[in-house]
Known about the structure:
The relative contact order is 0.13. This protein has 218 residues and is α+β, with helices and mostly antiparallel strands. It is 22% helix and 25% strand.
Amino acid sequence: xxxxxxxxxxxxxxxxxxxxxxxxxxxxxxxxxxxxxxxxxxxxxxxxxxxxxxxxxxxxxxxxxxxxxxxxxxxxxxxxxxxxxxxxxxxxxxxxxxxxxxxxxxxxxxxxxxxxxxxxxxxxxxxxxxxxxxxxxxxxxxxxxxxxxxxxxxxxxxxxxxxxxxxxxxxxxxxxxxxxxxxxxxxxxxxxxxxxxxxxxxxxxxxxxxxxxxxxxx
Length: 218
């Protein structure tokens, strides 16, 4: 009788611990799509149990694991607002992660003389896209399907943006913007008039900054 009671108590405690562990988890990386790749460092796992990488509207938290370089902290919790990976709410990521063995990793790198955007974004389906850059380790790719194996390569989260830019938003913006004509506030091409060519300049810049997956990004 004592053994039976002991067994039941042990089972209840084990179930409680297991349940509590799962309740406490807040990561939202797809377990079937969790790997980035660095040419110089190999695979990076965004979906380990201990790392608990989580994407929310404001930022990313948790740790990425790389067999060859150890843990990468996505939210080092420094006072510098540029440190830690920030999310602008649309899936455009900026800021720096920290690896004890490799230093800072920039999630929104710029290439001198190149206007293209190479940084990491999260599209409207939760797929990570783009590249991060570490001075000591080079480029890290998080795009899915690059290797033709979407179940193992590429990073995906269940978080998706609640911000959407649709064509009517752009058309309304253009209409209101051109009303500024007499003040020439919107004369971006410097020809002394506010016209379609100025609107084209806005569209060009907007397309550069739209995260992949937005209607105006294509």
